[in-house]
Design brief:
The chain is an alpha/beta fold. It is 24% helix and 23% strand. Helix 1 runs parallel beside helix 3. The longest helix is centred in the N-terminal third of the chain and has 10 residues.
């Protein structure tokens, strides 16, 4: 898939953090970015950032509301790209200022110094029932 995005020098790339109340460390990092203690040029979230965040299940964003709000705040200051995983999907409404790419839209092409890089959480050639689950 072609997306014509740029991978910027100084970007932070995070994958498979599986954030939850039992693993809160990611929240500290995201709050440091929000409060400008850390200053990435871009934030790329490569799926399974949350243990569970499903766009059609309100409870999942209720339990993650603090970090969701922080990411939405960050996305007003710098570019945020969210490449969905199998633990976090259907997120366009939750992150309105973020470029969100579903599993079906992966790999996501980003260019760095005139070089093409492909980014995917994985799970892009999954069995039919798995693809139905992530829809």
């Amino acid at each position: 898939m072609s997306h014509n995005l740029e991978l910027k020098e100084g970007a932070f790339v995070i994958s498979d953090a599986h954030y939850s109340h039992t693993r809160p460390q990611l929240l500290d990092l995201i709050l440091d970015i929000k409060q400008d203690r850390l200053c990435p040029t871009q934030l790329i979230l490569m799926g399974d950032i949350f243990d569970s965040l499903f766009g059609n299940v309100p409870y999942t964003y209720k339990i993650n509301s603090q970090i969701i709000d922080a990411i939405n705040n960050i996305s007003k200051k710098i570019e945020v790209i969210y490449i969905e995983g199998n633990h976090d999907f259907n997120l366009k409404k939750i992150f309105p200022n973020t470029d969100v790419y579903s599993i079906d839209a992966q790999p996501v092409t980003l260019f760095y110094n005139d070089k093409k890089t492909l980014h995917s959480h994985g799970d892009i050639q999954s069995p039919l029932l798995y693809r139905v689950y992530t829809k």
